[in-house]
Give the backbone structure.
Amino acid sequence: MSANEYYNRLWDILNGFYDAAIITLDEVDRLSDDNVLMILSRARESGKIDVPIGIVAISNKINFREKMTERVKSSLGHHEFIFDPYDGTQLKEILANRQDAFEEGVLREGVIARAAAMAANKHGDARKAIRLLRHAGDYAENNGYEAVEETHLVQAQEQAEADRLKELISGLPPHTRYVLLALANLTNQQPDDWFRTTVVYDMYTAVCEKSSADPLSTDSIRGLLNELAFLEVIESNREHGGMGKGTYKEHRLLWEPEIVFRMDA
């Protein structure tokens, strides 16, 4: 179905069955551009629909609005609500409700509390806490254990982080993975160091060669680095080279290299 056909069906449904509607867009920061927000926010004004609509845009990225054009911001007339991450007590209660996914007695005492504490300290995200518990169960089962122990959570966390990273970049072009591998290789060689775009690009071309892929242009890689910085997978800073040397960007990986390598496995 084309985008135009999809929108036409949406307008028909809204006009035919609703007096008003609220459209919820989860993980809105993963949109490649703000065209969807513009179309929805201007639908009534442009005569596509006769009913008022509201838009709820949900994002874990506080700064996602920076990618929106001024036209979209003006059209939305948005109000921002910030929700605090779940704390350990709340996560413990959420995870306790997921115990029925395991056979009775399989979860050792303290596993739920430990998983909740680990998630609260890391990110306060309920979905990621549930994923951590699931990975611990998978680890125990795959390694022949009869029960899930607290130590299995530590073993499972790395896989959960790899899955999280894979999810973060899933909407980006395939060469994003090569850029990440380049930064992971550089970070392995020089931990805690920052790397210029040119250095990252050189390593990226080496990764492409190893993977039998044709490298993209430098400008394309700059764009991918900007996307990764926006998603907080890497951090980027603009530096001044001094008199007559202009400015340049440096980047560093915000994840452990082992997580990137595991994601790529």
